[in-house]
């Protein structure tokens, strides 16, 4: 659970991009949320996610996590399109963007 969800005025946008591998995405989003809530509680952050055709299970991920901004595509438009969508669209409210891949995890 995120204490300040939804964030009205984020400073940081945690920007995820995925194509399949939703199990890894879940682990990465969980790790990010744990870290931010435990170690960075004063930083207002939002989560943005672009998914390139992971199928119906992507909706389950969206329902599981508190995500402010999301684009779920039914085709794989590639990494460049996904990154542009994140940085110039979904994360445009935040001063900083932290780009993350679905297979990045930390403790």
Automatic annotation (TrEMBL):
Keywords: Membrane, Transmembrane, Transmembrane helix. The chain crosses the membrane at residues 6-24. This is Glycosyltransferase 2-like domain-containing protein.
């Amino acid at each position: 659970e995120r204490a300040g969800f939804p964030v009205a005025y984020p400073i940081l946008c945690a920007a995820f991009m995925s194509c399949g591998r939703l199990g890894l995405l879940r682990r990465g989003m969980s790790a990010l949320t744990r870290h931010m809530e435990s170690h960075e509680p004063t930083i207002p952050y939002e989560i943005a996610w672009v998914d390139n055709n992971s199928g119906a299970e992507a909706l389950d991920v969206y329902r599981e996590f508190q995500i402010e901004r999301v684009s779920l595509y039914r085709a794989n438009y590639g990494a460049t399109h996904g990154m542009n969508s994140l940085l110039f669209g979904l994360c445009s409210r935040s001063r900083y963007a932290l780009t993350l891949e679905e297979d990045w995890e930390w403790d």
